[in-house]
Every structure is written in C-alpha cells, then in structure tokens.
Amino acid sequence: MMKLKMKMGAVVMLLFIICSQMESVQSDAFDCLDACQTACVSPGDLRLQQRCERKCQIKCGPDSTVEEDRG
Questions:
Q1: Under a CB-based contact definition with an 8 Å cutoff, are residues 40 and 49 in contact?
Q2: Which keywords, in A-to-Z order, does the entry hold (predicted)?
Q3: DSSP SS3 for 66
Q4: Whether the Cβ atoms of residue 61 and residue 37 lie closer than 8 Å to each other
C-alpha cells in the first residue's frame, strides 16, 4: 500500500513539473477583423458566411469600440 502511494505521489509530482514548464499558445490573429472572420464558419451556406463577415466589418470597422491588444 505504501509503494502505491509513493508511485502516485511521484506521478503527481512529474505531471506538476511538466505542466509548470508548458507555455501558452498565443493567438495568431493580429487584428479584430481577422479574428472575427476566422470565427465565421458556415460550411455550405454562403448567405450565413456573408452575413457573419458583414457583422465583422461593422464590429471591427473604424467606428467600433472594440479595444485591440497590440502587446
């Protein structure tokens, strides 16, 4: 029973070390319009695709209030 606890403790420690060394993947979309249009997925329905892209143009246009993170 003690050996099982030791093995489980070692596995938990190993997973903790591995997870602490991982890096987050950064988003590739560098602007609002690119990020929004990437999310417009309507396979087989051109009308919905165009509608979504138009909403993105309104959302990300020059008069939009969306703050972009340029860091």
A1: yes
A2: Signal
A3: coil
A4: no
Alpha-carbon torsion (13, 14, 20, 24), positive or negative = negative
Taking the C-alpha atoms of residue 54 and residue 29, their distance in angstroms, rounded to an integer, is 18
DSSP sequence for 17-61: HHHHT--PPPP---SHHHHHHHT---TT-HHHHHHHHHHHHHHTS
CB-based contact 66:34 (threshold 8 Å)? no
What is d(CA 68, CA 14) in angstroms, rounded to the nearest whole number?
A: 38
Structural contact between residues 56 and 40, judged by C-beta atoms closer than 8 angstroms = yes
- The predicted pLDDT at position 62 comes to 78
